[in-house]
């Protein structure tokens, strides 16, 4: 490979990484992930959940890339619009689920312990239990991957394919998609960290703020979802 061609390839791949970073912070992506992250109070699990979204997103992009680059499959505008409408429906569902959890009361349990002949009763909510949060983290992870995959099927594919057809080498084109996906993983992990940070700082101290962030995430996701469905199916 000539030095100029090698430089051109590096430039394309670097551009793909930057585009992936930028792509992760689009409104519909943040709306979806925020509804999942808002359920967490552990900053580590919040960040990793964003990474799982990026992994799902990248898996779908690679599959679509194979279909487009090697099998020459064409995605029409009408099909693309319907796929984006599916994303809108998913956002509405995620928003409703977040709002349901906002109005759901904590299940409070009481435990009695005896210490030096004196009995003490401790009351706590399982919603605040760190062990349960760790357990639920693994339950939430497949959901994050699935949400990322659905996003990858829709508008993100169109954005990526604006560049892919201009790349002559199929190998470089697939590598571009992979680098784009890595950028989206990094971008979403960063945004999930920023979303999860106030939740982590207010956990156990300002519960109303935690629930308020969950409600805002649900409303944001629901509103964005309704707008996307209306725009893609009716407008």
Detailed description of the structure:
It is a single chain. The protein is mainly α and about 240 residues long. The protein has one domain. Helices cover about 75% and strands about 5% of the residues. The chain has eight helices and two strands, in the order H-H-H-H-E-E-H-H-H-H. The protein has helices at about 5-25, 25-35, 45-70, 75-105, 130-155, 155-160, 170-200, 205-235, and strands spanning about 110-115, 120-125. A two-stranded antiparallel ribbon has the order 1-2. A hairpin with a 2-residue loop joins strand 1 (about 110-115) and strand 2 (about 120-125). Helix 1 (about 5-25) runs parallel beside helix 7 (about 170-200), helix 2 packs antiparallel against helix 5 (about 130-155) and helix 2 crosses helix 7 (about 170-200). The longest helix has about 35 residues, at about 170-200. The chain is globular. The N and C termini lie far apart (about 50 Å).
Computed Rg: 21 Å
Distance between the termini: 48 Å
Binned, the helix content reads over 70%
Strand order of the largest sheet: 1-2
Per DSSP, the total helix count is 8
SSE class: mainly alpha
Following the backbone from N to C, one meets helices and strands in this order, namely HHHHEEHHHH
Estimated share of beta-strand residues: 5-15%
Mean pLDDT metric: 81
Q: Specify the overall morphology.
A: globular
Number of distinct beta strands: 2
Largest sheet: 2 strands, antiparallel
- Kindly give the count of domains: 1
- Contiguous low-pLDDT stretches (5 residues minimum) are 126-133
